[in-house]
Amino acid sequence: MDFSFSEEQQAVGELATRIFTDLSTHERLREFEAEPEGDRFDRKLWSELAGAGLLGIALPDEVGGAGLGFVETGLIVEAAGRSAAYVPVIETLAAAAPAVAQFGSEAQIQRWLPGVVAGDTVLTTALVELGGTPSAPSVVAERSGDGWVLSGAKACVPSGMIADAVLVTARVEPDSVAVFIVETSAPGVSRERQPTNTGQPEAVLTLSAAAVGPDALLGAVEEGTAVIEWLVERSTAAIALAQAGAAAAAMALVAEYTKTREQFGKPIATFQAVGQRAADAYVDTEAIRLTAWQAAWRIGEGLPADKEVDIAKFWAADGGQRVVHAAVHLHGGVGVDRDYPLHRYFLMTKHFELTLGGATDHLLSLGATLAAEPV
Hints:
By secondary structure, the chain is an alpha+beta fold. Helix content is 52%, strand content 15%. The chain has 11 helices and 9 strands. A 4-stranded antiparallel β-sheet has the order 2-3-7-6, with no helix packed on it. Strands 1-4-5 form a 3-stranded mixed β-sheet, with helices on one face. The two termini are 26 Å apart.
């Protein structure tokens, strides 16, 4: 199996890495973190990504995109995770915008995607169900003339405070589901900031008999289940890729610190216990990265990827926790200093661990899939 990227993919990854490294610096991130009530959306970085053509990397040529695929998007997501950047790459680039391109009408594509490519529009998804699963949404959609009326609430909406529109999953009685593109400025739609440890601008989205037109329905009601599965699969794979970047960044900090921190006149990296702990964390980091890219490649090739996504998310959740805990321990007291960048990767990892299911959830899903396969 060839794990190397093509020249075009390498160019995308290098460009993304350079932009994130130059702009999402420790000092820049501290500016956002100094404003506890701020949106923590790096509009300058988002604009630079747009100018470089990266926001439309997987969107069609007709809206100004590059027409590439999920692997190229994954390179941007991994770079964002490595720099702990405050930009909505997972929800917008890996999930919502490609979903509009895949399932949307021509009118929906032209309404939303040129703005994404230009960096003027932020799209997000509302997939989290408190106490439930994305396939069984709590929001209810009722027909009203040619349009729909949506009622209910969604929690943990990523970038919910800055998004222009949200892909909302809803239940259509008696036994169907559907996805709607809901403008956050529409009547009956309200948002409330939902604090997170990472400071990401999540929100609780409340729909109070919010009326939307027929053009809000993404695809057809009969496609609702497939659209939701599509969104969840890509969102979960993107989370694993972002975790791969975060784990790699944490290990880079470990390598630099243990080489320069001396005890008993020697760098602590030369101590056997330190080396063994770091080696175990490195193995976990590589496992996170390889399983994430295996899932991303299958998605990009249009192959079934349900098992691979479950495996990737398990490693991102389970292995990611071991990596950042080891990183904190190997830094000693410095590891818990919020003036030092390691704390961001620790908090990001905890956030990624629980988003769209933790390690146990994905092991159970994987087990159910394997059990259902013929012997």
